[in-house]
Specification:
By secondary structure, this protein is α/β, with parallel strands linked by helices. The protein has helices at 7-17, 24-36, 38-62, 85-96, 111-122, 137-150, 179-194, 196-202, 235-256, 283-295, 300-303, 305-312, 339-352; strands at 76-80, 100-106, 127-132, 156-159, 205-210, 262-268, 323-325, 328-329. It has two domains: 4-62, no CATH class; 76-359, 3-Layer(aba) Sandwich (Rossmann fold), CATH 3.40.50. Helix 6 packs parallel to helix 7 and helix 9 (235-256) crosses helix 13. The longest helix is centred in the first third of the chain and has 25 residues, at 38-62. The protein starts with 6 loop residues before the first helix and ends in a 10-residue tail after the last helix. The structure holds NADP nicotinamide-adenine-dinucleotide phosphate.
Length: 362
């Protein structure tokens, strides 16, 4: 039995044994009722009823979807980060089109379980999985070595793996790279360089990279401070910078690959409700982000459409160095289109990831 003086303990007990396990929406509703009671909750419920559905329909109409029915029989697709979110939906879709898939899953995840799920949903058993860590350049090298040893060609490379690391602002990996930069940019840069012969052998072939609308947040790029060693950057700036680097990388990659039959494009999938937003975040952000996430963000299947378009649409075989969103070319920041900056970034990145002379094939 609790006494009145035990109130803080009672609250903790209720939280840990009951509320903690409820979905976030239920926690929010309970907190609102506890704090303000019905007079506040009622208008909130009315707001949901009046606006949620129309907003969702409006959003659905705006987001591009790809209707093409092209098959990918005989094609090999390498996709990184296929365990969840957009990558998972892309993998299922391409498997249904008959592609042979290589799933490059995060080292801590159950790659076999992802493989089994995609086999089951697609009815395609030409699927293999591997584990790696895109933040660790040694692990990226191991994956590339295996692929170069085992594969004859790769027709489509989808560099999907990425994070939004709220909890890891300016943290340095063993390679001396900033963690979020390493996962979102340096790892994909190194992997692409190391397996480029496989893509050239498959030409016409395609490379698809993931930028983000948040690249606009990076208004400058200090080539001598790519790992934020001089400090002064928060999560959002680092994330934006990592995506700006992917955009510049894609531009320079496309330029260098001209005439090889390998095209490279970059996309923003649209704000999409995926597990990336379940990573540890400040409480205020979860609260502010929750409503837009549920009302306005795309579903993972909708977020996958631009990738599917770039992977299978016949016309995408001839486009290179472009930025896409909603299955159409989109405008990007002036900085992301700066050819001189793209070249400087390439040279510096090659140095930072330790690309050897005999590996510089692009
Ligand atoms: N969702 C959006 O609103 C949005 C907007 C713009 C751009 N994007 C980009 O879209 C891509 C897919 O994101 P998503 O939203 O689908 O998020 P997600 O569901 O979290 O998918 C990201 C994938 O990357 C994997 N990954 C994370 N760290 C890795 C590492 N060190 N090595 C290898 N794999 C790693 C994750 O594996 P685990 O699940 O095992 O951690 C996961 O499978 C990302 O590049 C993201 O930046 C997303």
């Amino acid at each position: 039995m609790y006494r009145f003086g035990d109130m803080p303990e009672v609250m903790k007990d209720i939280y840990h044994n009951n509320i903690r396990h409820m979905p976030f929406i239920a926690q929010m509703a309970l907190a609102t009722i506890a704090a303000f009671g019905m007079p506040i909750l009622l208008p909130v419920l009315i707001f949901f009823a009046c606006f949620a559905l129309p907003l969702r329909i409006f959003n659905k109409l705006l987001s591009g979807s790809y209707k093409g029915t092209q098959r990918l029989d005989g094609k090999t697709v390498l996709i990184t980060g296929p365990e969840s979110g957009i990558g998972f939906e892309v993998a299922v879709n391409l498997a249904r089109r008959g592609a042979r898939l290589i799933l490059a899953c995060y080292k801590a995840s159950d790659a076999r379980a992802t493989e089994a799920k995609i086999r089951e949903l697609s009815g395609n058993d030409k699927i293999v999985s591997k584990n790696f860590d895109q933040s660790d350049m040694r692990s990226v090298r191991q994956l590339a070595d295996e692929l170069n040893r085992e594969e004859e060609k790769i027709d489509i490379l989808i560099n999907n793996a990425g994070i939004q690391a709220w909890e890891q602002v300016v943290s340095t990996t063993d390679d001396g790279l900033e963690y979020q930069m390493a996962v979102n940019y340096f790892g994909a840069f190194l992997l692409t360089n190391l397996i480029i012969d496989l893509l050239k052998r498959a030409a016409p072939s395609r490379i698809i990279n993931y930028g983000s609308v948040v690249h606009w947040r990076a208004r400058e790029l200090d080539i001598d401070n790519l790992n934020f060693q001089k400090g002064g950057a928060g999560y959002f700036k680092i994330y934006g910078t990592s995506k700006l680097c992917v955009m510049l990388f894609t531009r320079e990659l496309a330029r260098r690959l001209q005439g090889t039959g390998v095209v490279a494009n970059v996309l923003h999938p649209g704000l999409t409700d995926t597990p990336t937003y379940d990573r540890p975040q400040p409480f205020w952000f979860r609260v502010v982000n929750w409503l837009p996430r549920k009302l306005l963000f795309k579903t993972p299947e909708e977020g996958a459409q631009t990738t599917i378009y770039l992977a299978v649409a016949p016309e995408a075989e001839h486009m290179s160095g472009q930025y896409f969103t909603d299955c159409s070319p989109a405008s990007s920041s002036k900085l992301s289109q700066d050819p001189a900056m793209a070249k400087r970034l390439w040279d510096k990145s090659a140095e930072l990831v330790g690309l050897r002379d005999n590996e510089r094939k692009i």
